[in-house]
Write a structure and sequence with these properties.
By secondary structure, the protein is an alpha/beta fold. It is built from seven helices and seven strands. The chain has helices spanning 3-7, 34-45, 61-73, 92-97, 112-120, 138-143, 164-185; strands at 8-13, 16-24, 48-55, 79-85, 102-105, 125-130, 147-151. It has a seven-stranded mixed sheet with strand order 1-3-2-4-5-6-7. Helix 5 links the parallel strand 5 and strand 6. Helix 2 (34-45) runs parallel beside helix 7. The N and C termini lie far apart (37 Å).
Length: 186
């Protein structure tokens, strides 16, 4: 069995063959959790083909970097967007190298390679984090020169603990920012 098959499953929702998005989960935050689920719905509503990655076993960072070229290079569409959460944002340098636009949800910007890559991105790039997320680096996000959405009080799941209304507003803000980015890549 190939290493990739042992670690993940990829499913595809067919839409416009010229626009495809690859959606990658975090370590414990699946593509069925609110942020990724609703971003996938937004993409599908706008006609994109959506490739959803599900970890059978979350990969170690080295494994993810080994799998990333195959995951990104498998797409032959004219426009390829990467949507990644937390652990999967470690592929940001590779996406930037390939000139791919991206929606990076709770990126690990405290990691120097990711921070440098975010600053080099030339394709539309959105960095999303919460002020209560210990992995979020607001200063690095702002210094990157990319689009940034920071939600006050949001944690690593982009939820505001103890406040359902604020958590729903956070999700709406993420979808609005993602929609604006999609307007620029479509």
């Amino acid at each position: 069995m190939a290493p990739q098959r042992a670690l993940l499953d990829v499913s595809t929702h067919d839409g416009d063959g010229e626009r495809a998005a690859t959606v990658l989960p975090g370590r414990g935050y699946t593509c069925d959790a609110p942020l990724l689920h609703h971003v996938r719905l937004l993409l599908r509503t706008r006609g994109w083909s959506v490739r959803t990655v599900r970890w059978r076993t979350p990969p170690a960072p080295e494994q993810l970097l080994h799998l990333a070229p195959e995951l990104l290079d498998a797409v032959q569409a004219r426009q390829h967007l990467v949507v990644a959460k937390s652990l999967s944002t470690r592929i940001l340098p590779l996406a930037v190298q390939r000139g791919l636009p991206g929606i990076w949800l709770t990126p690990l910007l405290r990691e120097p390679d990711l921070c440098r890559a975010a600053g080099r991105a030339t394709a539309p790039t959105l960095l999303v984090g919460g002020s209560a997320d210990p992995y979020w680096d607001a200063a690095a996000a702002r210094q990157s020169g990319q689009r940034v959405l920071e939600v006050a009080g949001a944690d690593h799941s982009m939820e505001v603990p103890g406040d359902v209304g604020a958590s729903m507003q956070s999700l709406q803000a993420v979808l609005a920012a993602a929609g604006e980015l999609l307007d620029d890549v479509s």
